[in-house]
Design brief:
The structure holds 2 protein chains of 2 kinds. Chain A is mainly α. Chain A has 13 helices and no strands. Among the domains of chain A are: about 110 residues, no CATH class; about 70 residues, no CATH class. Chain A is elongated. The relative contact order of chain A is 0.06. Chain B is mostly beta strands. Chain B is about 5% helix and about 60% strand. Chain B has 2 helices and 36 strands. Chain B has a 26-stranded antiparallel barrel. In chain B, strands 6-7-12-13 form a 4-stranded mixed beta sheet, with no helix packed on it. In chain B, strands 18-21 form a two-stranded antiparallel ribbon. The longest helix of chain B has 15 residues. The chains are: A mainly alpha, B mainly beta. The interface between A and B is large, with 147 and 199 residues.
C-alpha cells in the first residue's frame, strides 16, 4: 500500500519534471530570440569617452529633467548626493556628468525624424553597460567601501550593480529604511523574503530589524556576508546570554546556532529547523528515553507517563538550559 | 590548542604564482568614468541656477489613532499595538544649511511599545553624531496559567498546593494565576563618525540593549517536570571603534569591539510542586545565563595593484571571559558538598585569519583564491564536578568539557566571461574542521561549484548555480567520559559523512519598465551516507514567483507565490542496536499574496492600496517501525493578513489616511493543544499555549507637512 502510493508519487514527480522542463524551455526560446545581436556599433562608454562636457553643467540637464519628465531627478537635491557644499558629493564635482558622463549630443535640442537621442551612461538593470563599469563610477567616490568590503564580495563577483539595490534620485533610498529592506533584498533572495512571513521569525516585517542587522551586503570577512566573523558571533550581538563560555557546553550550540535554528523564519517555534523531539533525536540515541520512537501512542493515556517526551516543550521540558548551563549540576542541561 | 597554520601546498603555489604576476602589474588604475575632455570643463561657469535651493527646514508630523477588537496580545508582537485604542505619533524633522550642516530626527510609533527614533547632527563629508532608540515588544502567549509567584527571587507555590507525585492532581485551576509571557527589548545607540580627510575615517558606536519581561522555562525533577515563569532582566553593552587609512593602492584599518552581558538575575530558586523523591528535595535552583565579556581586535589590510586585482589580509583576535559565581550543587541541604572553585574562570580565545587574492588577467579571465583559518581555543580549565541530579542524588564525578574548534578553509574560483553579459564561475572549496572531546575529531568537506549569470538582453536575465560537496569524517571514538553512553551507530549530523547537492535557478524577465517577473527555484539534498542512526537525509526544494505590472502611474499590481517543501528522514533504535524505527518529517509551506495600488483618483487626491498575504503551513510526521506505520496528527498553521488603505491629499500640507487590517493566525499542534494543567501525569504545564488570534484593526491618521 505504502509502496504503491510511493510509486504513484514517483510517477507524478517525473510528470512534474517534464512539465517543468517544458516551462523552462519556453522562456529560453524567447530569450534566444531576444538575444539576437542588437546593432550597436559604438558602445555608450566609448561614445562618452570622447564626448564634450556641457557648458552649463546641471543647468543643461535640469532644463528637461524636471519633476514632470519621464526621469524626474530633483529629489536628489534633498540627499547627500545633491549637496554642493560637500566636496565628496557629485554635485560639487562634475554635477550630473560626474556619474552620467559628458552630455555630448544628448542635449541636442532638435532631433531629426526617426533620430534617437544620444544615450547617456545610465544604471538601468541589464542595459549594455557592464555592471563593473557602472559600479566603478560609484566606487570612484566610495573608494574605501569598495576596497575594504565590496571588492571580492559575493555580490561584487555575482554581478550585482550598486543601482540594483540603491536609488539615489529619491528623497530616501528605500534600502536604507529597514522596513523596506526585505522587499529590496527579496527581489533576488525570494525564499528568504518569504520565510519572513512565517509563524516564527525575526521582526523583519515591522522594520525593527532589517536584513543589514545580520548581513553586510557590501561585503564582509565572513561567509554569507555576515556582519560578524561567524554565525554565532552574529547571533550573540543580540543574544549574548547564549555566548558563555558555560561550565557545561552543548557542543552544537557553541559551534553553530544554525545547526538547529533557521534565522530567516520557520514554521516551528523558536525558528527551529525541525519539530522537537525529532530535531534532538537527529543526534541523540543513547539508551533510555532519547532513543524511543515518539509515535502516536505517546499521545494516549496508557503511555501518558511518557507524554512529556513528546508534548509541550518536548525534550526541553526537562533539558531547558539547552544552550549551555553554568550550574555545577547542569551536566544534563536541566538546571 | 595553538595549531600551526597549515596552508594546503596547492594554495601556496597558486598564491606565489599570482603574487609574482602582481608584482609585474602596473599601479592601480583610477576608478570611475572620466571623459577625455574633462580637463576642458570650466567648473566656475557651472552655476547650477536651476538646482533647487535646499530647504533649511523640512518637517512632518502624523497623528495616528488606532482601534482594535478584543484579542490583541499576540497582534502586539513586534507592533506594540496592545490596547484596544491607541494614540501615537510619527514624524520627521530635517534641517540642512548651505554650508553642509544638517540635523535630522525621525520617529515612529511614539506612544507605543515599538517606538523607533533616530537623530543625527553633522556636516556632510565631515562628521556625524547620531543617537538612536529602538523598542521591540516580543509578545509570546497571553493566556497561560501558573501556580508560581516570584517572591524575592524564589518561585513559590500557593500555601494549599496539593503536593503529589502525579501532576494530574494539580487540576484545581483556582490555584493558578494568569500569566502572559513576553519581553520588551530596548536599545539605545550613540554613534560618532569622522570622514573629513579623504584618507582617514573613524567610526565608533556604543549601544545598550535592555531586555525585561517573563519567559517560559522549565525544570526537571527526574521523572517529572514543571514549567516556570522566568523573569528576565538582562543588559548587553557594546562599544566599538574602527579607523581606516586609505592611500591610493593601500587600505589599512584597525577595529576594536567590546561587549558585556549582565544578567540581573543570575539564578532562580523554585519550589518543587511534586512529592519529593528524596528527603530535602523540596526546592531547586536554576543557574541563569552568566555575566560574560567579549573582546575583539581586527586588523585589516589591502593592497590593490590593478583595478580588479588585490590582496587582502584580515586578522581577528577575540577573547571571551566568564567568571559568574557558581550556585551550590543543589538546593537539597542533605546533599550539599563543597565546590572545587567558586566560579568557572571561563576563558576562550578566538582567532581568525583570512588571506584573499583576486587577480584579473583581462576582461574575460580572473581568479579568486581565499584561505581562512578560524580557531576557538577554549582555555577554560576542565573541572571535575559531582553533579546532583534534580536535587535527588549525587551522580558520578564528571569533567566539564571545554570544546575547541578549528576550521581551515580554502577556495579557488575561476571566472570566465565568454562575451558581454555572460559570466561563468567555476570553483573548488575545501573545509577541514577539528574538534576536541567529541566522538568525531575531524571532518573534511570538499567539492565543486559553478554558477552562470547571463544577461541576454535588458529583458532577460538568468542566474544558475550548483554545488556538490562531499564530507568525510574521521572514525568515531568511544567517549568514556560523557556519563551517558551513546549508541555507537549514531552519527551526529553536523559531523557525519555527507554528500550535499544543491542547485538554484533565477530568471528575471523585464519586458518593459511596466512589467517584471521573477521565477526562482532551489533544490538541496543532504545525504548522510554512512549514518545508520540519526539524520539520514534532508531535502529541500522551493519555487518562487514574483509578478508585477505597473502600466501607468495610477495603477500597479503585484503577486507572489512560494511553495517550499522540507523533508527529513531520521533513524532511531530503542534497544541500543541497529535501526528499529524511522521518522519522516515533512514541512510544506505555501505563501501567496497580492498587492494592488490605485492612485490619482478623485481629482488626483485619493490613493487606494489593497494588500493580502497568506502563509499556509503543514508539518507531517510519520513513524515506521516493526509494528507498522503510524502518523502523528498533522500540525497546521494558517497566517492571513489583509489590508485596505486609503490616502487622501486634503491640501498641499495635509494628508488623511484610513486603513483597515485583518490579521489571523490559526494553528493546530498536538504538542500544545489540550495540554492543560493536570492533563499529563508528569508535566506541570502552563496550560494550552496556543498562539491563535484573530484581529481587526482600524487606523486613522492625519499627516501635516510643515
Amino acid at each position: 500500500m505504502v509502496k504503491s502510493s510511493y510509486n504513484r508519487l514517483h510517477s507524478f514527480r517525473y510528470l512534474r519534471l517534464a512539465l517543468l522542463s517544458c516551462c523552462l524551455q519556453l522562456p529560453l526560446v524567447a530569450m534566444a530570440d531576444a538575444a539576437e545581436p542588437q546593432a550597436s556599433p559604438v558602445s555608450t562608454l566609448e561614445l562618452k569617452q570622447a564626448a564634450d562636457y556641457s557648458k552649463d553643467g546641471a543647468d543643461t540637464c535640469l532644463g528637461c529633467h524636471d519633476e514632470d519628465s519621464a526621469f524626474p531627478v530633483l529629489s536628489i537635491f534633498k540627499t547627500k548626493h545633491g549637496s554642493r557644499t560637500d566636496p565628496h558629493s557629485p554635485l560639487a564635482q562634475y554635477q550630473c556628468e560626474s556619474c552620467h558622463g559628458p552630455v555630448g549630443e544628448h542635449g541636442k535640442k532638435r532631433l531629426r525624424k526617426g533620430e534617437n537621442r544620444e544615450a547617456m551612461i545610465t544604471f538601468t538593470r541589464g542595459n549594455e553597460i557592464p555592471v563593473a563599469e557602472k559600479n566603478a563610477i560609484c566606487s570612484s567616490c566610495h573608494e574605501q567601501l569598495d576596497k575594504r568590503h565590496w571588492a571580492g564580495s559575493s555580490h561584487q563577483t555575482g554581478e550585482v550593480a550598486c543601482s540594483d539595490c540603491h536609488k539615489i534620485h529619491v528623497k530616501e533610498d528605500p534600502i536604507r529604511l529597514k522596513q523596506l529592506q526585505v522587499q529590496v533584498c527579496g527581489s533576488c533572495h525570494q525564499a528568504e523574503k518569504l520565510a519572513s512571513k512565517r509563524f516564527s521569525t525575526h521582526p523583519l516585517e515591522y522594520g525593527q530589524m532589517g536584513c543589514t542587522d545580520c548581513h553586510s551586503p557590501h561585503g564582509s570577512n565572513a561567509d554569507k556576508l555576515l556582519v560578524a566573523d561567524t554565525i554565532n558571533d552574529t547571533c550573540f550581538g543580540c543574544h549574548a546570554e547564549k555566548r558563555g563560555p558555560f561550565a557545561w557546553e552543548h557542543e552544537p550550540a557553541s559551534e553553530n546556532c544554525a545547526l538547529c535554528h533557521n534565522p530567516h523564519g520557520s514554521n516551528q517555534p523558536a525558528m527551529l529547523t525541525q519539530k522537537v523531539p525529532f530535531l534532538c533525536q537527529n543526534c541523540h540515541s543513547s539508551a533510555g528515553h532519547p532513543s524511543l520512537a515518539q509515535d502516536s501512542s505517546r499521545l494516549s493515556t496508557p503511555y501518558a507517563s511518557s507524554s512529556a517526551l513528546l508534548l509541550g516543550r518536548s525534550c526541553t521540558n526537562c533539558h531547558s538550559s539547552i544552550h549551555g548551563s553554568n550550574h555545577p549540576s547542569g551536566s544534563r542541561f536541566q538546571r | 590548542m595553538n595549531k600551526i597554520i597549515c596552508i594546503p601546498k596547492i594554495t601556496v603555489l597558486i598564491m606565489s604564482a599570482l603574487m609574482l604576476t602582481c608584482l609585474s602589474q602596473a599601479r592601480a588604475q583610477g576608478l570611475g568614468f572620466e571623459g577625455d575632455k574633462r580637463a576642458e570643463v570650466k567648473l566656475e561657469d557651472w552655476q547650477c541656477e536651476y538646482c533647487p535651493k535646499p530647504e533649511v527646514w523640512d518637517m512632518s508630523l502624523a497623528v495616528h489613532f488606532g482601534v482594535t477588537d478584543e484579542e490583541v496580545y499576540r497582534f502586539a508582537n513586534y507592533t506594540g499595538l496592545d490596547r484596544q485604542s491607541q494614540l501615537f505619533f510619527s514624524g520627521d524633522i530635517k534641517m540642512q544649511t548651505e554650508d553642509g550642516h544638517y540635523w535630522s530626527t525621525h520617529f515612529r510609533n511614539l506612544g507605543l511599545d515599538s517606538l523607533a527614533l533616530d537623530s543625527a547632527y553633522g556636516k556632510q563629508g565631515s562628521y556625524r553624531l547620531g543617537v538612536d532608540y529602538l523598542a521591540i515588544p516580543v509578545r509570546k502567549y497571553a493566556h497561560l496559567l501558573t501556580p508560581y509567584s516570584n517572591k524575592g527571587g524564589m518561585l513559590q507555590l500557593p500555601g494549599d498546593w496539593p503536593t503529589s507525585a502525579d501532576a494530574r492532581d494539580f487540576a484545581d485551576l483556582s490555584l493558578y494565576r494568569p500569566l502572559a509571557t513576553g519581553t520588551d527589548w530596548k536599545r539605545l545607540g550613540l554613534e560618532l563618525s569622522l570622514n573629513e580627510d579623504d584618507d582617514f575615517s573613524f567610526d565608533s558606536r556604543y549601544q545598550r540593549w535592555h531586555k525585561t519581561g517573563t519567559l517560559e522555562y522549565s525544570a526537571a525533577q527526574l521523572l517529572n517536570a514543571s514549567y516556570l515563569p522566568l523573569p528576565v532582566d538582562q543588559t548587553i553593552q557594546d562599544l566599538s571603534a574602527s579607523m581606516s587609512y586609505n592611500r591610493e593602492s593601500w587600505l589599512l584599518s584597525l577595529s576594536a569591539a567590546f561587549s558585556r552581558f549582565d544578567n540581573e538575575l543570575d539564578s532562580l530558586r523554585f519550589a518543587n510542586p511534586y512529592e519529593p523523591l528524596a528527603a530535602g528535595a523540596d526546592s531547586g535552583q536554576l543557574a541563569l545565563a552568566p555575566d560574560n565579556n567579549a573582546l575583539k581586535l581586527t586588523l585589516h589590510g589591502q593592497y590593490r595593484y590593478a583595478r580588479d586585482s588585490f590582496v587582502k589580509l584580515n586578522y581577528v583576535f577575540g577573547k571571551l571571559t566568564q567568571d559568574q559565581a557558581f550556585v551550590p550543587y543543589t538546593d537539597n541541604a542533605n546533599l550539599l558538598t563543597a565546590l572545587p572553585q567558586t566560579d568557572l574562570e571561563g576563558k576562550v580565545n578566538t582567532s581568525d585569519l583570512t588571506a584573499q587574492l583576486n587577480h584579473r588577467w583581462d576582461r574575460a579571465w580572473a581568479v579568486r583564491i581565499k584561505y581562512r583559518y578560524r580557531e576557538r581555543d577554549n582555555k577554560t580549565a576542565p573541572l571535575l564536578l559531582r553533579p546532583v541530579i534534580s536535587d535527588l542524588y549525587v551522580a558520578d564525578a564528571l569533567m566539564t568539557l571545554p570544546y575547541d574548534y578549528s576550521t581551515r578553509s580554502a577556495s579557488a574560483t575561476l571566472e570566465y566571461r565568454p562575451m558581454a553579459g555572460h559570466l561563468l564561475n567555476l570553483g573548488y572549496k575545501n573545509e577541514e574542521k577539528e574538534r576536541n572531546l567529541q566522538a568525531v575529531h575531524n571532518t573534511n568537506e570538499a567539492g565543486f561549484n559553478a554558477n552562470y549569470a547571463a544577461t541576454f538582453s535588458p529583458e532577460w536575465m538568468l542566474k544558475l548555480s550548483g554545488e556538490r560537496l562531499n564530507r568525510d569524517s574521521s572514525t568515531p571514538e568511544r567517549l568514556d567520559f560523557l556519563g551517558v553512553e551513546e549508541n555507537p551507530l549514531m552519527r551526529r549530523f553536523n559531523v557525519a559523512d555527507r554528500q550535499q547537492d544543491s542547485a538554484r535557478l533565477q530568471l528575471f524577465y523585464t519586458p518593459s519598465e511596466q512589467v517584471s517577473a521573477t521565477v526562482s527555484g532551489q533544490y538541496s539534498h543532504q545525504d548522510y551516507v554512512a549514518s545508520e542512526l540519526g539524520l539520514k537525509d534532508n531535502k529541500l526544494h522551493n519555487a518562487n514567483l514574483d509578478l508585477s505590472w505597473h502600466p501607468n502611474e495610477t495603477f500597479d499590481i503585484s503577486l507572489f507565490l512560494q511553495q517550499e517543501d522540507i523533508k527529513t528522514r531520521l533513524a532511531g533504535s530503542d534497544d541500543f542496536s541497529g535501526p528499529r524505527w524511522q521518522a519522516r518529517n515533512q514541512d510544506k509551506i505555501t505563501s501567496y499574496g497580492i498587492s494592488l495600488a490605485l492612485r490619482k483618483l478623485l481629482d488626483d487626491k485619493l490613493s487606494l492600496f489593497i494588500n493580502f498575504d497568506r502563509a499556509d503551513a503543514h508539518t507531517y510526521i510519520r513513524l515506521d517501525q516493526a509494528g507498522g506505520s503510524d502518523a502523528l496528527p498533522t500540525i497546521a498553521s494558517l497566517w492571513s493578513h489583509g489590508e485596505l488603505k486609503m490616502l487622501y491629499q486634503y491640501s498641499t500640507h495635509t494628508e488623511l489616511s484610513f486603513s483597515y487590517q485583518y490579521q489571523a493566525f490559526d494553528s493546530a499542534d498536538f504538542a500544545i493543544d489540550g495540554v492543560t494543567p493536570g492533563s499529563l501525569p508528569n508535566l506541570l504545564t502552563f496550560g494550552t499555549s496556543s498562539n491563535n488570534y484573530n484581529v481587526s484593526y482600524g487606523l486613522v491618521s492625519v499627516g501635516y507637512k510643515f
